[in-house]
Model the fold of this input.
Amino acid sequence: MLTVLNPATEEPLAELEQAGLEETDAAVARAKAAFPAWRAIAPADRARLLRRLATLVEEHGEELARIESRNVGKPIAGARAEIGMVAQVFHFYAGAVDKHYGETIPVAGGVDVTFREPLGVVGLIVPWNFPLNIASWKLGPALATGNTVVLKPAELTPLSALRLAELALAAGIPDGVVNVLVGKGSVVGARLVEHPDVAKIGFTGSTEVGRTVMEGAAATIKRVTLELGGKSANLVFADADLEQAAAAAPYAVFDNAGQDCCARSRILVERSAYDRFLDLLVAATRAVKVGDPEDDATEMGPLISASHRETVASFVQDEPLFRGETPNGRGFWYPCTLVEASNSDRIAREEVFGPVAAVIPFADEEEAVRLANDTPYGLSGSIWTRDGARALRVARALESGVLSVNSNSSVRVSTPFGGMKQSGFGRELGMHALDGYSEVKNVYLATDA
Ligand code: NAD
Done:
């Protein structure tokens, strides 16, 4: 049995049966059996079913947000926004079903057309930090393009995915199209990766497990999309609006208690503005409201588990520049922490996945780009400057898949999201995600007599 906890109270929320190999094979078989009818459904009807699911998510928004808030320990205000995005994702892909078409290509002697074919059964493996949100980024395009799915939520946070499977059935999506399996990554996840009837793995998680998934997928030449870790830079140039950059910086790394693949956990600051920025940053970090996730005003909750808190704490050996407050008593709390560092320190090289930011000075634009790129990761990042040409020059030079200028917000339903380097490959969200869940088929039809 799996005991699911509330990380803010350490109270159990549910006891769940875990699937094993047999249940995984049965779920894949159900998805395989459901595939022919689901791919054949008229596009407008498939769109209508996804639209209905989106509407049900909206109608059950508060319930889903509470589930997510209790299971992840995330502030309820953030959880509401995430569930709002889940509904928007299904609305977007409902609208995309009949807008992802093939081409006609000029050739001699006939007609050449391309089709976008679904892959079949796809395995979706997701982490615990944004459980339903990240699941929807995969479910939306996978279902829109006519695939059936087996979704494996993280062991720590399976509750919202289980509720979504019920809503999918209530929306009228046929039995077998959306299957959710609660179980261990090393059992259920690994089985999905090796299963010959699974055509693709859409994976979000650590770079370490992503590597295992990629290796395992090689045996059956399975398609993979990998959304992995990050160590993103927040570049603050001296000519930026320093007040605005400093006010925003804490939320770019302490949101979701730093358990965010896009966390701008390296704050790189031009030396001439360093002291002034640091004062502003400390003041802004002190203002982050840490506490009960169920309180509407709370901005940061606890970490996901006791063992994760140990890992996060191991990064802060010396007295930090700033350490915030946490509630007393039960819960896996860890304070907002700012550390002055150099880019070669462990804290600047490894993903902490907790509320710890490394502040690092740089001399000029050339050094800023070099330090920002000096990491195996390449997921996200921000550039703060009033110089528009510099903003674009630096954005082009950064080895990172998702960037924002004078903002830390770079994830939107309609725009592509994904990493470079060891942050993975493939793109989620927007129309780009549809390419990852379909295959281009080319057909030549001779018309010459
Ligand atoms: P994780 O890699 O430990 O687990 C992710 C998922 O993989 C879980 O469902 C887990 O059960 C499963 N899994 C574990 N071993 C497996 C195996 N051998 N085969 C198949 N599946 C297996 O990651 P986590 O701790 O849940 O999440 C945190 C990590 O996720 C961080 O590194 C974070 O950066 C990353 N992340 C990336 C993105 C992104 O979009 N790039 C988004 C969120 C989180």
